[in-house]
Amino acid sequence: MKNTIISIILILWTTIGFSQSFNTQKLDSLLSLLGQNDKFMGSVAVSKDQKSIYQKSIGSASIDQNIKADKFTKYRIGSISKMFTATLVLKAVEEQKLKLNQTIETYFPNIKNSGKITIKNLLNHSSGVHDFTSEKDYLEWNTQNQSREDMLSKISNGKSVFEPNEKSNYSNSNYVLLTFILEDIYGIQFSELLNKKISAPLGLKNTYYGDKINVENGESNSYSYLGTWKLEPETNLSIPQGAGAIVSNPTDLNLFIEELFLGNIVSEKSLETMKTIENDYGFGMFKFSYLDELNFGHTGGIDGFRSFTIYFPKDKLAISMTSNGLNYSQKKILLSISNTFHNKSYELPEFHKIKITSEDLDKYLGTYSSKEIPPKFTITKEGNTLIAQVTGQPKFPLEVIDENVFTFTQAGVRLEFEPENKTMLIKQNGSEFLFTKNN
């Protein structure tokens, strides 16, 4: 759910064709290797023509309780929730309870520009409503229950980022507002609406609006890796609402996205509307390139959870992954899965652990700024792990790969330090930015 300055790029699929005789042994080896090296905990599922053709779970649903993950384990899916919420909105449009071009001042008169902002603007992030997760104090209250009035106050008190339709900018606030609108027009809670309109009809037994994590109910805790897996605090799900509060697993996600694209949830016209991409955003969907073909889906992240679901319309192929602990590039994992199912070769990663002491990290600690980009990086440590934090964003762990060289593999970021010169060079996606230590 939380957006960071370190952007995780959308996946460019470069494989060709599909074969049903794929090398499951190699894919098993990859996922097991990642698990053995503390790179991944979670579940993967692949479905072709509405038939499950692969499923694998790695690691623990709860480390403290020694509960292993399996195909029934449920995960918070973060922003994939937006695809469900957008689907419910389009169903409401079909039922003539909403119009895409209607403005929202009737529902939220205190929201800036509410007389200009339409339902469509909320759906494709063109409203200009600020994202409450970008507030500097967000991590001070994100574990506490928030009422509807609390959330509306936090959203309405924020400044407009831009005028409606001027451009697009991802904002969780848009989908919280859509949640409240859906509850108003149907007169029931979002959780009940989700079950009534989607989960129950499709038989999604593991998909529902979440609450406090209950491992005894098959739900998983989430973790970040700081030398060992550390339990992450739980975002109170009264906050993200339909922007990120849904719990599911890969099997259910595949079924949902398949049924959506087969026209069994909303009409073909509504689906085409959802798939219409403007300034990189559809209605609860992203586009993903696969040679000359466009594929659609969404990513998700909340606390230590990371997830992804994508549908290849041409191949009628669905791939979903849910993780409760990720210390590796999601892009690389998914590209390996795609290569496997399209019979393309790839190399298994090699991991060489470098021993480093807490004292060895002291020379890197401090705050770094750059003349090229405004955010500052604060480098701290926890035990034998170096920690980075961008101004106003959550901390993330760095992995040592060479002398003075660290990476954050989830986002493909490489940090090269020169302690003697008090500099740090950040490399990502072909770009380089030089930072200098301020203290």
Explain the overall architecture.
- This protein has 439 residues and is α+β, with helices and mostly antiparallel strands.
- The chain folds into two domains: 1-351, DD-peptidase/beta-lactamase superfamily (Beta-lactamase, 3-Layer(aba) Sandwich), CATH 3.40.710; 359-437, Lipocalin (Beta Barrel).
- Helix content is 24%, strand content 27%.
- It contains ten helices and 22 strands.
- The chain has an eight-stranded antiparallel barrel.
- A hairpin with a 4-residue loop joins strand 17 and strand 18 (395-402).
- Helix 1 packs antiparallel against helix 10 (330-341), helix 2 crosses helix 6 and helix 5 (148-156) packs across helix 6.
- It is globular.
- This is Peptidase.
- Residues 43-327 form the Beta-lactamase-related domain.
Throw out a few tags for this protein:
439 residues, Beta-lactamase, 24% helix, Peptidase, 7-stranded mixed β-sheet, Beta-lactam-related, globular, AmpC-like, alpha+beta
Helix percent band: 10-25%
- Could you tell me the radius of gyration in angstroms? 22 Å
Cα separation of the termini:
32 Å
What is CATH's topology name of the largest domain?
A: Beta-lactamase
* CATH homology superfamily name of the largest domain: DD-peptidase/beta-lactamase superfamily
Q: How much beta, percentage-wise?
A: 25-35%
Low-confidence region ranges: 2-20
CATH class of the largest domain: Alpha Beta
Please describe the biggest sheet, giving its number of strands, its sense, and whether it closes into a barrel.
8 strands, antiparallel, barrel
The shape is globular
CATH architecture descriptor name of the largest domain:
3-Layer(aba) Sandwich
Q: Average the pLDDT over all residues and give the rounded result.
A: 91
